[in-house]
Design goal:
The complex is a heterodimer of chains A (324) and B (291). By secondary structure, chain A is mainly alpha-helical. Chain A has 16 helices and four strands. Chain B has a two-stranded antiparallel sheet. Classes of the chains: A mainly alpha (324), B mainly alpha (291).
Chain lengths: 324, 291
């Protein structure tokens, strides 16, 4: 019951947020939603299945271009273009399956890095479709006669997608599929000996992960309204990786916390002129030092029953209420 | 033409190899992929730049200054930051190196500015002709230094206590500790030598690619690719991988003109093909893990 109250309260708060927030804050929240979905995707692949990837900006790019091009060139209705972008990106995920079946750890990381570099190099040269280096304007998303032309409207779109994707991720993690992923991560050969087909489940992991990131890409293109190939570089892949690892690997709330934290951090720092990069770097190092298992790992550790006694009373009451 | 392309490919390949060795030294003893390496190299190279152009000191001093800076940076990173994050998983430490890189980039921006700077060649003079192959004097110096480094490292791993202790730590941390090796200290040594090597390579790379805040990161990516190509655990592998990568890059000139802009893609594709055939890299040991 408490859980129910808590979740409906949180949902009401999120649904009413546009009433108190500035348009700019909403825009950043939308971006946080984009990265949240991408981070969930990477987490399912790296955090749950143990397959490193530092090339996810490639999938983000594929999703973004698919999301923008399908309505613009093929007149695909907008409500269909987002899932289609996810599926196209998911199919592209199978490209990485070939190295993933042979390679582990750092070798796989380099193969994914190569994938990201390849996408970044092909996009600007495929001028006929992508508009080259200059990028392209994304048509306004329209849905049942309603044009999503303001940050508020886009916020609700992002909110719906984020909630759906979180629920889907929860279901995947709790299902047979998710348990197979964890088994592969923890001990590949033992998993295989127990009858888990590596090919089948790694393929699923890559498809799902690329699907998530593709959806995030499509959402990105609608939120920003303009896409160009330069945005989807190694730095973006590393950003998604950092969101996943700093939030907490192998945990869904971790992805939420990590994506929101790292999306907002540069904006919190915008007051410190010339110091942003320094503080950003220092923040990364500090999080690693004080929360080695990610921010969510830190929260989990400090809300363990034995540590709970040492927390100040009001804070303890909050934690206990949340726990139910 | 072919010989020319191969020789100049070998020259850039030796530079990749030198940087790759720095990465591998750290990776072997600590299992951390040092992604702040590009920025650490950039920072040390800027020290050399400052000694050369601001204080007008001779090249030898600038060279040593950069290496000393890299050495110190390695120690500071390991002792000051990474040792503080006890028991952190490798992925988190990887992110810490990224954060340190950003800090260095910010500091370098304040001190030396944001524009691209030309970096002087150490030796000037007309190129050397070897048959029909033209070799720049700088390339000859690079070959000489790379060979010297390879020999020095070989001697270090074979004959010195630190080198042997490093090998032991790389092989089995727990057994090494039981043998009385201070594993933490060995990690610091690897960081110091690794980043120092990067600084040395940086001073040799900077005249070719010029010096700014981010260019060394691109070189580092190539070094990572070279290291992976050779097998991330093997030093001779890094040399082979680096040289091969340099030559491969130059030979992409033979690609059909329509595909020419996709050079990086092509190089990565080759790497992936090599890895698909030999998943542990060209000279890497295959890792048989107990289940």
């Amino acid at each position: 019951m408490r859980r129910f109250i808590l979740w409906s309260g949180a949902l009401c708060l999120l649904a009413l947020a546009p009433l108190f927030l500035r348009s700019y804050t909403l825009y950043i929240l939308n971006m946080a939603g984009v990265y949240l979905v991408a981070t969930l995707g990477l987490n399912l692949l790296t955090g749950y299945t143990g397959q490193l990837s530092i090339g996810h900006a490639g999938f983000l790019a594929i999703g973004a271009y698919a999301g923008a091009l399908l309505p613009a060139k093929l007149a695909v209705p907008f409500w269909l273009s987002i899932p289609l972008a996810g599926i196209i990106s998911g199919l592209a995920g199978f490209i990485l399956l070939i190295p993933a079946l042979r390679l582990t750890a750092i070798y796989l990381a380099i193969a994914t890095l190569g994938f990201g570099a390849a996408v970044a190099e092909i996009l600007p040269r495929w001028t006929a479709v992508t508009g080259g280096y200059q990028g392209m304007k994304v048509p306004k998303a329209a849905f049942l006669g309603l044009t999503l032309d303001s940050d508020v409207k886009l916020y609700y779109l992002a909110l719906i997608i984020v909630i759906l994707m979180i629920l889907l991720a929860r279901n995947i993690v709790g299902s047979k599929l998710g348990r197979a992923f964890v088994a592969i991560r923890d001990q590949e050969r033992a998993a295989q000996a127990l009858g888990i087909s590596l090919t089948k489940y790694k393929a699923s992991a890559f498809f799902i992960s690329a699907f998530y990131t593709g959806i995030a890409g499509a959402l990105y293109s609608f939120v920003v309204g303009y896409i160009s190939p330069g945005e989807f570089d190694l730095a973006k892949s590393l950003l998604i990786f950092m969101m996943m690892a700093l939030g907490g690997m192998g945990s869904i709330p971790g992805s939420v916390v990590g994506a929101v934290f790292l999306t907002f951090l540069p904006h919190w720092l915008s007051g410190f002129r010339g110091l942003q990069q320094f503080i950003y770097g220092a923040a990364l190092v500090l999080v690693v030092i004080f929360a080695p298992y990610g921010i969510w790992g830190f929260v989990r550790r400090w809300t363990m029953p034995d540590k709970l006694q040492r927390l100040p009373r009001p804070l303890r009451a909050v934690v206990e209420f949340v726990r139910g | 033409m072919l010989a020319q392309l191969i020789v100049s490919g070998l020259a850039s390949g030796s530079l990749y190899a030198m940087m790759a060795i720095g990465l591998i030294l750290v990776y072997k003893t600590t299992h951390i992929l040092n992604f702040g390496y590009g920025d650490m190299t950039m920072f040390s190279t800027f020290i050399a730049y400052m000694l050369l152009t601001w204080y007008k000191l001779p090249f030898a001093v600038a060279f040593l200054g950069a290496i000393a800076c890299g050495f110190l940076l390695g120690i500071i990173v390991d002792r000051g930051f990474l040792k503080m994050a006890k028991n952190a998983p490798i992925t988190s430490l990887f992110i810490a190196t990224l954060g340190i890189g950003m800090i260095l980039e910010a500091v370098a921006g304040w001190v030396w500015g944001y524009d691209t700077k030309p970096f002087p060649y150490i030796i000037k003079g007309p190129p050397v002709l070897l048959g029909s192959v033209v070799i720049r004097r700088h390339d000859l110096l690079v070959f000489a230094i790379a060979a010297a480094i390879a020999l020095l490292l070989f001697a270090m791993f074979k004959f010195t206590d630190i080198g042997i202790a490093m090998r032991a730590t790389a092989q089995n941390k727990r057994a090494a500790r039981l043998m009385g090796i201070n594993v933490g200290q060995i990690a610091t040594w690897s960081w110091a030598i690794g980043v120092g090597l990067g600084a040395l390579a940086g001073v040799l790379i900077a005249p070719i690619v010029f010096l700014d805040l981010t260019r060394m990161i691109l070189v580092m990516i190539k070094a990572v690719a070279a290291a992976v190509l050779g097998g991330f655990t093997s030093l001779p592998g890094a040399i082979v991988g680096g040289l091969l990568l340099g030559v491969m890059e130059n030979l992409t000139i033979y690609m059909p003109a329509a595909l020419a802009p996709l050079k990086t893609t092509f190089v990565f594709l080759l790497i992936i093909i090599v890895l698909a055939i030999r998943p542990q890299g060209l000279l890497g040991e295959s890792v048989g893990r107990r289940v």
